[in-house]
Automatic annotation (TrEMBL):
It comes from Paractinoplanes pyxinae. Coiled coil: none annotated. Pfam families: PAF-AH_p_II. The keyword Lipid metabolism applies. InterPro entries: AB_hydrolase_fold. It comes from the Bacteria. Gene3D superfamilies: alpha/beta hydrolase. This is Acetylhydrolase.
Length: 368
């Protein structure tokens, strides 16, 4: 008798709202695709996560679709069916929860060779607190599946941060269309009820992990539609010119101001509110879903403790989840909603492992 593979799990969000999710297929006809080289046809897949209602009859969204997960696992050297994809808290196509006000929007950019749900712990937490989060699959440097069934994986020649930046700026254009009541999906698939017209384009933030964090910095330098940026352990290369006068937060682990000249230089380019936090014992993937998923996989495949520590560092997994859930919500609540957050003021008894390596308010660029 065949035994079904063990299903991995993800922690649930803790916000007051249920979470809905949907996928959109976007097409940018203004530029060639750096992935395929085809002119006037830059394809993207994006996910939209949002506060939802009446979710019971809608299925939960997989962290990764089965065919994509099989490719992802085999590329990593594991058996294709060693595990089943975890299910997220997002309910596919559930109606948006109406609050009477338009909702702040966040754009998420993943790291090299990752996928748009790679930081779903953080993403669904933000959606459960009333944000619409638009997550990008940067095709050519992402694991994804298109509506026609094509499964795509990262190419040998990965995309540059500049390509991620162009993708994000195009997605900002499509967010404006969605906010105006239009359906940007190139295949015209039906949107969840209430989503069109519900976004507040005056309150847009951006988040990125690793290369996506570098892209976040680039977008903040080039596009003033983004009012606040959170970069999660970004390498910040190649070096960028210019200054950012809007709020910016760094969550560092391996790419730090102490060890990386590019990160140190970028810190001086932040002339508005800025904050750099770092969790003791964190490694690059500690602020990513892999911090939770790899210990589960390790038990199934017999991974050594030393190999597992390469993925999780010495940061306790449950504590990493709390950090991933608390700090992004606090940052965007303060800078997109105007609600002061004591968590951002300095070291917190609730998070003794988090170091505040630099903090300065607008106009005070010399502290930290």
């Amino acid at each position: 008798m065949l035994v079904a593979p063990a299903r991995l799990w993800l922690p649930a969000p803790t916000g007051p709202f249920e979470v809905g999710a949907t996928a959109l297929h976007l097409l940018d006809r203004s530029r060639p695709d750096p992935f395929t080289g085809e002119a006037h046809r830059r394809e993207l897949m994006v996910g939209v996560w949002y506060p939802a209602r009446d979710v019971e009859r809608f299925p939960r969204v997989s962290w990764m679709e089965p065919a994509v997960l099989r490719r992802y696992l085999t590329d990593a050297g594991y058996a294709a069916d060693v595990v089943a994809s975890p299910l997220t808290a997002g309910r596919e196509g559930a109606p948006l929860r109406r609050t009477g006000k338009k909702l702040p929007v966040l754009v998420f950019s993943h790291g090299a060779g990752d996928h748009r749900n790679g930081n779903s712990i953080m993403i669904q937490q933000l959606a459960s607190h009333g944000y619409v989060v638009v997550t990008i699959d940067h095709l050519g440097d992402a694991y994804s599946r298109l509506p026609d069934g094509r499964v795509v994986a990262p190419t040998e020649q990965s995309l540059y941060p500049q390509d991620f930046e162009r993708d994000a700026r195009f997605v900002l254009d499509e967010i404006e269309r969605l906010a105006a009541g239009h359906n940007p999906d190139v295949d015209r698939r039906r949107l969840p009820d209430g989503l069109a017209g519900a976004l507040d384009v005056r309150r847009i933030g951006m988040i990125g992990w690793s290369k996506g964090g570098t892209a976040t910095a680039r977008v903040m330098l080039s596009d003033r539609r983004v009012r606040a940026g959170l970069a999660i352990d970004p390498p910040l290369l190649p070096a960028m010119d210019g200054r950012i006068d809007r709020p910016f937060m760094l969550m560092t682990a391996e790419f730090t101001r102490a060890t990386d000249p590019a990160v140190r230089k970028f810190w001086t380019q932040l002339i508005g509110w800025r904050l750099n936090v770092q969790a003791d014992g964190a490694v690059h993937s500690s602020y990513n879903d892999l911090q939770v998923l790899m210990p589960q996989l390790a038990k199934i495949v017999g991974m050594s403790d030393e190999e597992l520590r390469g993925w999780t560092g010495h940061l306790n997994t449950a504590r990493a989840v709390r950090i991933d859930q608390a700090y992004p919500v606090a940052f965007f609540d303060q800078h997109l909603r105007g609600h002061h957050q004591r968590l951002l003021d300095g070291p917190s008894r609730a998070f003794p492992e988090v170091q505040y390596l630099g903090l300065s308010a607008a106009g005070d660029t010399h502290r930290g």
